[in-house]
Amino acid sequence: MMFESSQFDGFVSTQSTQSTDPSPTSAKSRDDQPMYPVTVKQIIEATPSADDKSNFVIEGVDVYNVKLVGMVYNKSERVTDVSFVIDDGTGRFGCNRWVNDSQDTKEVEGLTDESYVRIHGHLKSFQGKKQVVVYAIRPINDYNEIANHFLECVHAHCCNTRLQTGASAPTSASSAVSTPNGHQANSSSQISHEYNVDGLGSIDKMVLDHLQQPSSLEAMESLESEGLVYSTIDEFHYKSTS
């Protein structure tokens, strides 16, 4: 089962394996890092990465691309950029959005104080101070998105905490995981009877445990019927409409 990366923003990252000597290649690869759901509190508590000072570490994971959901305050417009503060209930944090073209202008025009937004951006340090350099802003009209974002943050936290402690992913007494659609997901040990899982890391096995084809196809069909995704080259490849 394969999906376009633009549809599902990755939010569980493995430990960095970059060289301790940052190179242009490693710096360039930051743009390819997964999108990480975070809260303001996590950003405030983030520490500089030992491997790459341009990155920050959240719960033992190098984080560069982040997504936040919160309410906008203190919007300030200038000729080349717009700055604002985002409040998600765990704290407040300053963000900056550069305005380079008409699309950027359109995005910031819809940005108003005390409105809820979803932002995607790079977590950076400027003059010793952390900031989120935003490259996408979208207003939130369905408040379920707020709850969904915090669920993603909790899921990422739980997964990374288990990775740090070496604990395995939770399973029921029958060693099967119940999916939201009621399907029973086989554990990676059961899957090994059908597929060779030797050499797979804990993240790979976690994916096998939780993402079974029947429930995944059902979820994608539901998203497609709601107009949120569309199929591309075949029925197994989808892309977001947003």
TrEMBL record:
Residues 13-26, 169-180 have a biased composition (Low complexity). The keyword Nucleus applies. GO terms for cellular component: chromosome, telomeric region; DNA replication factor A complex; site of double-strand break. InterPro entries: NA-bd_OB-fold, NA-bd_OB_tRNA, RFA2-like, Rfa2/RPA32, WH-like_DNA-bd_sf. GO terms for molecular function: single-stranded DNA binding. Residues 181-190 have a biased composition (Polar residues). It is found in: Nucleus. Keywords: DNA damage, DNA recombination, DNA repair, DNA replication, DNA-binding, Nucleus. Its main location: nucleus. Residues 66-140 form the OB domain. Residues 1-34, 169-190 are annotated as: Disordered. GO terms for biological process: DNA replication; double-strand break repair via homologous recombination; nucleotide-excision repair. This is OB domain-containing protein. It comes from Buddleja alternifolia.
